[in-house]
Amino acid sequence: MARSFDAEVTVVGGGPVGLIAALLLARDGVPVVLIEKSPEVETDLRASTFHPPTLDMLERLDLAHVLTSQGLISPQWQVRLHPDGDRVVFDLGVLANATRHPYRVQCEQWKLSRTAYTALVSEPQAEVIFNAEATDLTEDEDGVTLSIAGPGGNSTLRTRYVIGADGARSTVRRALGLDFEGETYPETTLLVTTTFPFEEHLEGLTNIAYCWKADGNFSLLRVPNRWRVSIYPREDQPIEAQLTEASVEAQLQTIVPRREAYDVLEKRPYRVHKRIVPHYHRGRVALAGDAAHVNSPAGGMGLNGGLHDAFALIDALRDIRNGAPRKERLDLYERRRRPVALEQIIAQADANRARMREKDPARRREILDGLKAIAADRARLETHLLRTSMIAGLRQAAAVT
Questions:
Q1: Structural domains of the chain ordered from first start
Q2: How many CB atoms lie within 10 A of CB 48?
Q3: I want to staple 159 with a disulfide (CB 3.0 to 4.6 A). Which of 10, 73, 154, 319 is the partner?
């Protein structure tokens, strides 16, 4: 006698991508279980930029307002030379005919996660299990059996479909035997959070600023009541020496010199990767977000791309429930999302990183002048912003049949 199913779909991973995927399923009336290895919704900073089409999508779940009300609406972003302040400013208002949200929102991703979690657990078709990790899976003709290490010990969970949204170190991806092709960038980036009001000291500073300085580069991303400073450490010193309190202070002092020490709330190093799987699904198991692709954070596209995956994958599962052939429809999901990740998200993030890593002053000036020419030409500006705001990628995906 065949074992009954514990869920129609099991989502592995309780970050924003997994939570949004599970909520979309539950709102469709689909029995869904979400398992997350952490003891609760994680509240570390991580991503903080939400692009216009992501906000449009989140309206389907009545969640866009969470970001616009709890974050900073940011209609402009810039690239600037430091310390002279010469800059190019990109105005997202030109996208008013392409999106209901012609701006970015700067908001900590955990605010979306917490609200999505609250909405999810109120759905009668949804169950969330914390402190649980998928360790393996086996598939048969009718479904998938997950091996779970959880709060009550080891167990199994029977489900028709699995969504692997469990991040760059995805156990679901490893269980499928899929490679994670690409590379790790050589440098380590240092993320520092401070309450210092840079906007009061740097003329014309927008909430998102990518900056060149004499010996390197940094970015300034504002969220409510604080700034996130991404510092790209010097290449002539060991990273350990640059993580000391004195070194971090010295780096911040190169941005705005002041007599007082900076109030540093958090500092952490991280490595940056560009990787992608060869396939987004095998059988009844599909991947979304960082489990499928990772990229440089330059441009703020990683989380957004993962959320776009979630919406596209849930649309695919809905079509399958309505009679679409399973393999063909999941193949279409892959054909739509993988090229966008490779040709748009990863490629743009890599180009953004390379641009800001440029050291030669003359070449920096040439790049800045080229960006100014784009910003001064409305047609070129619209094309540029459709691409950097991820709208062009979504249109590319929608054209695939």
A1: 7-76+95-182+274-356 (3.50.50.60), 188-272 (3.30.9)
A2: 25
A3: 10
